[in-house]
Every structure is written in C-alpha cells, then in structure tokens.
Amino acid sequence: MITDRWISTLMAPLALWVILNGFDDVFIAMAAAYAWLRFRFTSRQPERIPTEGELDAVPQRRMAIFVCLWREHGVIRDMIEHNIRSIRYRNYDFFIGVYPNDTPTVAAATEVCNRYPNVHLSVTPHPGGTSKADNLNWIFQCMLLYEERNNVRFEMIAVHDAEDVIHPDDLRWLNYYAQWYDMVQIPVLALPTPLRQLTHGVYCDEFAEFQFKDMPAREALGGFLPSCGVGTGFSRRALESVAAAHSNQIFDATSLTEDYEIGFRIHRLGYRQKFIRIVRRDGKFVATREFFAQTFRKAVTQRSRWVTGIGLQSWEKHGFRDTLSQFYWFWRDRKGLVCNILTPLANLLCLYGAITWAIARALHIQWGLGAELRTGWLWTFGWWPILLVLPQTAIRIYCSGLVYGWKFASLVPIRVPWANFINYCAAAKATWNYVSARLRGVPLRWLKTEHAYPNRAALVTERRKLGEILMTSGYVTAEDLDSALAAQPAGVRIGEYLVQLGKLSEEQLYEALGLQQDLPAGKPHADVISPEVTRAIPADVARLWKVLPFRVVAGQLYIASQELPTEQMISQVRDFWPLEMRFHLVNPRAFKELIDEYLPPRVPASVPGLLTGLGLLASLVAISGTRLGSSHKLSPGSVAPVHRP
To answer: Is residue 215 part of a domain?
Structure first.
C-alpha cells in the first residue's frame, strides 16, 4: 500500500533520532551509576553525606531566604508560619518580594513581617507582575539596604517559592556544603497526589528521575548544574561576581528560565557547584517539596516556558560557543525541543504498526508495513528503539518507586504517553510563541512592565535631607544651615544658596548630593574617558540636558551629569543609546571643562544665519546673472538700465 510505503520511509529518520537519543540516555544512566558508586564508596568529606554531628559542628552562616510573590496572599502566611516553626536553623532572615500594585499580597506580607522580626518586606519600585528574576534582583538590593541600616552581612542566599515546604534541615545542609561550594542545590520533589491525577503524576515521575539520575550525572561529568529555582543556596561572593559581570542583574530578567541561566553564569565564572543527593533523615527525604501543575492546561503553559527558555532563548543567547563539555550539555538540554515534537509522532507510527499487524493476523493476510520494512535496514535495526526505550522506562519506574512507592510507580507506563502528549503541546506552543515574537519584533518574555536598573537608592522612599548630610559630613554648621534656610530666596535650592553665601564649595555640595542619591560624584579621570563614547549622543542634546557619556563597561553607559537624572532626561538619552545607564554627578565647573574638552565648539547663532543669507544671495545673483546674460548682450563696459516705476 502507498500508506505503508510512506510510513516506512518516514520511520527511517525517526528511528535514527530515537536510536541517537536512546544511546544518549544510556550514556547518562551509566554516568549516574558511576556517580552512585563513587558516592557509595568515597571517604572524602565533601562527597559523602554528613552526620548530624558534622552538620552541627559547622558555624551557622547568616543566611537570607528570598521569596518572590505575585498574587500569593492566600498562601504566604501559612508558608512563613509553617517554615519558621519547623526550620532547625537560627541565623536566617526571610526577604519577601512584593509589588506595590498587588495590594492583598502587600497586606498579607506586611502582617507577617510585623509578627516575625526576621521577616522583611521588599517592595519593587515599579508595578508588577514582572518576571521572577526581576523580583529577585530587587530583593537582593533590599537585602543590601537592610545590611547598611543594621550593620550586618549575609553570607549566603537561598531561593524559595511561596508554595514550598522547606525541609527542617534544608539550611543546615546548605550551610554545611557551603564550606566547599558556592552554589548548592537541595533536591526538589513533587508532593504525592492520588493515582487518578495523571498530570501531577508526570511531575512526580520526571522530577524523581531527574534528581536521581540526571543531576548526579551532570555533576560527575563536569557539566554545569542548573538551579531548580527553589532550594538553591548561593554564596555571597558568587552572586556579587555575577552582579559585577552582568550589570547588577544577578538573575537575567529577560530570561524565561532564570534558574537555568544563573547555574550557567556561576559555572562560567569558575565557582564550584554541588547537588546534594537524595537521602532520608528521620523517615523524610531531605528535599524541598511542593505541588506542581495539576491540570493539562497549566502543565502545558509551565512547560512551554521551560522549553522556550532552555531550548530556544538559551540557544539565542549563547549558541554553541562555549567549551566542548558545555557543548554537550547545551545540546542535551535543547534536544528536548525536537524530542517533544517527534516522540508523539513515533508513538502514533508504532500504534499504527501494532494495529495493522493485529488486523493482518486476525484476517490471515500479509502485513503490508512489515513487507515494506523487510526491504530496508529498518528490519535489522528497527527494534533498537524499543530495546533502548524499555530500560529508560524501567529506570523511571525505579526512581519513582523509591520516592512514592511501587504502587504509584506501576502506572509509569501509562503516564509516559500522557507526558509525551503534554510535552508535544508545550513544544508546539513554545515554538509558536517564539516565532511569533520574532516576526512581530517584540521582546521574548512574559513581562508586563519594563525592567529598571536595580539599585538601593530606588528602594529608599524617604531620603535623608541634604542639610542633614551636610551637617553630619562637617561641611556646614547647624547655625549656618538654619540661617540659610531662613533667608533662602524663592526658587533657589538650599545647596546652591549655601554655595552663593560661600559657606559651601561646589565639590562638597555634589559629594553630599551623591550620598543622598546613592550616586558617585566627582569629575571622571581622563584615563577612563573614551572620546568615541562622548559622541554617543548629539552635542546639542548633551548641552541641553547637561550630560556627557564617557565610558561603556559590561553593557552599561556611564554618564557624567551636572543635574540629577530625571525620567525625561533618561528618555531623551535612550533615543540615541539604549544601554543601561549609570550616572556620575559632576559639579558645573568640572562639567564645563569636560564639555569644552570633548565636544565640538558651539557655533554662534548668528553664524549659521549669516552663512545661509550669503548662500541665498549668491544663488539669487547666479540665477539673475544667467537670465540677464541670455536676454541682454552687454559689452564689458556697459551698464544695464535700471527701470523705476
């Protein structure tokens, strides 16, 4: 039959892909077995599971737990109360990130903060909801502000979600392994649900397999460890290095999978990563537990984000330019995009083959597809995909059984086809969203607002008064300040008036303004100024807004400014240069020196008018001369007659 011929032709590339994918999975399974043997028989302290005494012997680092919230007012109270009661660790604080336009969540979080002294509120300076990465970046800035105000320092940062059930010893384990590693990942497992909930059962199976097999294999083979988004601990020095390398955006606010990206960033900077193997203590797994999507639609939405971020957006950001070892891991992570599309097709072809074989056997006729397959190499190698898939299914059954019991694991063969269908829909949706965004020229992100540059100053709602800073800095006395305030003319700022009175120098004023606004102040040194960058915006715009770009570092445009930055100023500069901006306050005298040195001299207003007038006159003369010469034959000494009315 023609149908059987076409199907046999289609099965060839599918079989090749399934065989390649199957051998890749077998390789990872072998690596996981090697990792287990090394773990089982090692005596090295960082590699083995610590005892209770070893956990207690490590001094407790001060730890900050970041929790991002968007419309989570219904769960945040229970989450904080439960975990504060159960966590067996003393030296920690919660920082809860909320948005100013999420009033119910702000109220619930404020109530919790008022109840517990180690729970602090972080309100982003812009409305939500944005991405989790954006929220995390602002929580980090809030933590820095808290440190400044309370003279403390957090040595480690852990990330959790509002739905997380944190293991009582979670922080103790993070603290223990932080002796050797800068990123430590606690296992993440789905909470058990009834057998009838197939969709959530898929999460149970896949997370169990990933935590038992893939993560130990990645670590053993030297691959970077992606964060699971929750249950991850980071050293302070690692996050500060990431901030320095990525314009203070520790977590990539444009990425749909910021947890995957932060794992790669930390590995690329040379910091060590550790995945804690799944173990039981007191009858419980040392793991972060939570419920995942329990409906088909929610599962497709969540997984489409994963596929877009890892399979497409990461490819767009990094390509294959990294080291050979990371080349393999990127390929393995991205192959899911192809697998998710092809696996259901392969399942349908296998189902077609099984049905037609059964019909042929029942009717005692020749199996058409079998006849087509016998003529090609598929008859010899066509069984390999089945031989490779069966061990993978067995491994998933084993991993799921270890966590949820063998009754639950016995339904893995039923949940696998359902998982394939969910992943197919997620891959199709991810591809559509990606291509659509590119064709329309819109950003590939699920954000509702633009990102602002994270800084502590933006989080300060009540700034210190300039007069207070001037007095505490010793620049003016209280008597001089009171006298200036009493005689201050209308429309003149107090700092400018003190300079006019000779009580304050311009350098002192701008240093105080820098302290008030959390901006660096002072004239940039010549060796950091790039003449090419100073021409990044037109000279008339630079003079109008009193700004001068002078360097570009790590994707940021550094701008010397005589005035404090305003939204209108930033908008005008961004029309010519879309980079993130870092402003540097410069007093008027120093700014004039910069303008005179690096910008072309301003042409007097009368000069362009004069040149234009002369040009117009010359044009008129030329035109008139042409006409006169054509109508009157004038001798060199003749004069054209003048006609008067």
So the answer is: yes
**CATH number for the domain harbouring residue 588:** 3.30.300.160
Count the domains in the chain.
Answer: 3
290 strand-pairing partners? 190
Rounded Cα distance between 583 and 564, Å, is: 8
Q: Are residues 491 and 573 in the same domain?
A: no
Regarding whether 563 and 506 lie in a shared domain, the answer is: no
Residue 63 placed within a domain: yes
- The confidence score (pLDDT) of residue 8 equals 65
* Residues 531, 599 within the same domain: yes
Distances (CA, A) of 355 to 69, 289, 358, 362: 50, 42, 5, 11
User: What is the end-to-end Cα distance of the chain in Å, rounded?
Assistant: 104
Average pLDDT, the chain: 81
Sign of the dihedral through C-alpha 411, 413, 414, 420: positive
Question: Helix (H) and strand (E) counts for the chain?
Answer: 27, 14
- Residue 333 lies in domain: 15-345
Q: Are strands 580-585 and 188-190 parallel, antiparallel or unpaired?
A: unpaired
Q: Print burial letters for 90-126: b (CB count within 10 Å at least 16), e (below 16).
A: eebbbbbbbbeebeebbebbeebbeeeeebbbbbbbb
DSSP structure string for 386-413: HHHHHHHHHHHHHHHHHHH-HHHHTTHH
- The candidate with the shortest Cα–Cα distance to 212, out of 35, 432, 334, is 35
User: Which segments of 364-487 does DSSP mark as H helices, in order?
Assistant: 368-374, 378-381, 384-404, 406-409, 412-440, 466-472, 478-487
Q: Classify residue 116 by its DSSP letter.
A: -
% of the chain surpassing 70 pLDDT: 82
Q: Are 511 and 582 in the same domain?
A: no
C-alpha span between 308 and 299 (Å, rounded): 14
- Taking the C-alpha atoms of residue 430 and residue 445, their distance in angstroms, rounded to an integer, is 12
Alpha helices for 157-197 (secondary structure H): 170-177
Statement to judge: residues 336 and 474 lie in one domain: no
Whether residue 307 sits in one domain with residue 162:
yes
Query: pLDDT (tens digit, 9 = 90+) per residue, 158-203?
Result: 999 988 889 999 999 999 999 999 999 999 999 898 899 999 999 9
Tell me the C-alpha distance between 211 and 223, whole Å: 15
What is the amino acid identity at position 349?
L
518, 534, 564 - which closes a domain: 518
Residues in the chain: 645
Q: In the 8-state DSSP scheme, what is residue 278?
A: P
Residue-wise pLDDT for 519-548, tens only, equals 778 888 888 888 888 888 888 888 888 888
Split at pLDDT 50, 70, 90, the class of 623 is very low
Q: How far apart are CA 295 and CA 28, in angstroms?
A: 30
Q: For residue 214, is it within any domain? A: yes
Residue 637, in any domain of the structure? no
